[in-house]
Specification:
The chain has about 150 residues and is mostly helical. It is about 75% helix and about 0% strand.
């Protein structure tokens, strides 16, 4: 059982490498799926570790990303984006941009949802304000001496 957990961890690591490389190269899931002859949903299942990644599929992905299979297994962003000291800084900045971009996208989607909720609540408030107010029945008004 420990072997299975260890293997799963290794596979997830490789799939995570593939996703990172794909994002760093600004390749969408749709594009990569088309390049390897798969549907987008089928490819997405591979990235999410929902279906098994075969060696032949790993080879196709490596070719589509213009890398060797070994580079997918031993992904190193620093080497991929530049191996010298300036490359380290560029790689770190590029990785940061990818992470920031992802976080920014999530943040913007959250803001959009809040804005939609705000508009819905404003419309609900306006509708409430437009409703006729509760008024006392005429017989109650007469008892108080009003007619």
């Amino acid at each position: 059982m420990a072997i299975e957990a260890s293997l799963l961890k290794e596979v997830e690591s490789v799939l995570n490498n593939i996703r990172k490389i794909r994002e760093l190269k600004n390749i969408t899931r749709d594009q990569l799926a088309a390049d390897i002859g798969m549907s987008t949903s089928g490819y997405a299942k591979i990235e999410r570790c929902e279906i098994e990644l075969t060696l032949s599929r790993l080879y196709q992905i490596a070719q589509a990303l213009e890398l060797k299979v070994q580079e997918l297994l031993d992904f190193n962003a620093i080497q991929m984006l530049g191996g010298d000291e300036r490359g380290h800084a560029n790689a770190a900045a590029e990785i940061g941009k990818t992470q920031d971009s992802y976080e920014t996208t999530i943040f913007h989607k959250y803001i959009e949802k809040l804005e939609d909720e705000n508009l819905r609540l404003k419309a609900e408030l306006l509708a409430y304000r437009a409703e006729p107010r509760y008024e006392k029945p005429a017989y109650l008004l007469q008892k108080n001496g009003r007619s």
